[in-house]
Amino acid sequence: MLHYRVTGDDFESSLLSFEKLDRASPDLWPEQLPGVAEFAASCKNPITNSPPKWMAELESEDIEMLKELGSLTTANLMEKVKGLQNLAYQLGLEESREMTRGKFLNILERPKK
Question: What is the pTM of this model?
Answer without folding.
Answer: 0.46
